[in-house]
Amino acid sequence: MATAWFVLIVLMLIVYVLLDGFDFGVGILHLLVARTDEERRTVVGAIGPLWDGNEVWLIAAGGVSVFAFPRAYAAGFSGFYLALIFALWLLVVRALSIEFRSKEAHPLWRQAWDAGFFASSTAMAIILGAALGNLVRGVPLDASGYFAGPLFTDWRPGPDPGVLDWYTVTVGLFALVVLAEHGALYLVWKTTGDVARRSRDVARRVRPLVAGLAVVVTAMTLAVQPLIRANLARRPAAWPLAFLIAGGFAGSAVAERRGRELAAFVAFGAFIAGLLGITAAMVYPDILISTHAATYSLTVHNAAAPASTLRIGFVWWSVALVLAVGYFVHLFRSFAGKVAPGGGEHGY
Amino acid sequence: MHDVGWNRLQFGFTVSYHYLFPQLTMGLALLLVVFKTLALSRGDERCNELTRFWGRIFAINFALGVVTGIPMEFQFGTNWARFSAYAGGVIGLTLALEGMFAFFAESAFLGLFLFGERRLGPRGHLVSVVMVFLGSWLSGYFIIATNAFMQHPVGHTVGSDGALQLADLWAFLLNPWALWQYAHTMCAAVVTGAFAVAAVGAYWMLMGEHEPHARLCLHVGVIAGLIASGLLLFPTGDQSGKLVARHQVPGLAAMEGKFESSSHAELAIIGQPDVTRRTLVNPVYVPAVLSYLAYGSFGAIVTGLNDVPEDEWPDNVELLYYAYHIMVGLGTMFMAVMLVAAVQLWRGRLAQSRALLWTLLLAFPFPYIATTAGWLVAELGRQPWLVYGLQRTHDGTSPSVPGGNVVFSLLGFMGLYLLIGLLFLYLVLRELARGPEPAH
What we know:
The complex is a heterodimer. Chain A is mainly alpha-helical.
């Protein structure tokens, strides 16, 4: 049962990255692809009614983690204290930038929020990547079941690493270009005219960076985490995900060239999902890997709530998920199609 | 200050600040349903204009509720790791259900409510606002159920690893503490919303602006305010008090500033607790009423703090005492104000009574004070326990987070929240100045 919850939480986090990921991507790129105020309103309007629901996937995944893996949640959240506090503040700035920018016509007011939207989205993309890097590399968990992760130590992944080292920073940069590409493809799909054209240019220029960094990060990951090397050989069932990754990437490029905007966006989403999925499959059953000793690692076995509790939660979770998916389909269909220039009736 | 003190200060500050927004969200959500229903049933376009006007304020308020709410869930892990590890297997369920059942509905339908009126049509628009209302009230229930478990844990067992686990789902979800606390909290949220709506109506009326809209706001605000403030005192406040009397004996004594145990216990209307000398200074008492209110009999014995070991006292008796008296005092005044306003409304004289309009206009901040005081009562009354009778507050903190980190984040939250508070006021005042507008 604990394994099922591991899979469900990973799936929820993948959905979160796919959905809020394009919001971050839009934030990273909007200064570049939207020049006039009307264009900025178009771009913000393209995610305006959606971003809040997208962020709920993170909150829901957090709530589910407290419930299913209380010890891992406690150790992870307290261990990454400062990094998470920064992430919270960035999420506040991001949300207010989207919601407040168009409530006042003053040009400096709008410039300030546009800068906030860019800065918070960029920093959040890097933080999400670095967070994943930390989970893969491992954290200095000891016998107490807790760890104190300083923001940085010697910038090297060793037994006592900081939140930031050369590996996690590289993963953070990888996340930045991946989400920028994701956001660019989203804007190509959702907008028209100059914004769409510039977004397409960005998507084409960023694509080689994504491919290059994907190779670099994969090599680094295999070097940094021996567990993944070992598990990769041991778990051929996960190999097909490599086809999803390669196929998603190539398919996205081809579809974008042929002008199939939605297909390009979805295929790139498959690329992201494949990357996250194969990472989770390689670290399983660990949730938090200890850099000191394997026995200190928090796993789906030693960090899970009791099976009876997990079963009760599963029933409720399933019902709620069906409803949530229904709402999302309804929401995305209600706001389907291209965004009218200036954001239309959205008021963003 | 000890580390646990900084952690409590940060959680207390961020949660008190956060709750300024959801209370209006929940209260106003109900009133938005009322306005939209009136718009449909009477075919009155002014009700639609008011739905949009309050919808714009709702949206600003909702956004701040969301951004200040996420830190609450995170802090369970960042600042209260040992509490999460100990109780996560139980309270994690309600936190998960809140996200899955309530937030998805709220966020999805809020976008539709705010931006989809033309696409959805009148009925679809009503459905969207009803869904936002249900989502926000459901979210409230899951949070209250979480808090109620901390106040009065039921439905759990202690597992082999020493952590709590769920034994009886329905006992946990239908905790009697949760049911009364929820009813009480929701009535208070409606009071906040009703006073806000009535205050805006009174403002327009005094200014001679938007008179038809002002009348509707006064009508809806006063009637909702009267019903909710009545239910706030009885039965929900009364029953909540009885639960405290039954399950949190030292908390009741501290709220009342009662040190000596006695039967025919007197109710302190005012007075200042002197904890060092263990007495209430300058007291004004009503004889025997406390025994009756707490236990339903004038002869019932009310235990004073002198008969409770000091390590089981709530650790801030003074603040708890004042918070309780402010909450009850304000609640009584809300009832009185709304009763007078309702009588004048019924006689058709509310719109002409400038003194009463001024009172309604100036009254809107007080429900915020009362709800904040109410939460202080609940949370200080629970001390020194984090989970009542099971885990002490100082055993719930994060072992790996030094106090210095918490001071850092607390100061950051204070700065950020000051800024967003100013932005909130600025934007809401702008919407008020803009007023209700005809559809364009």
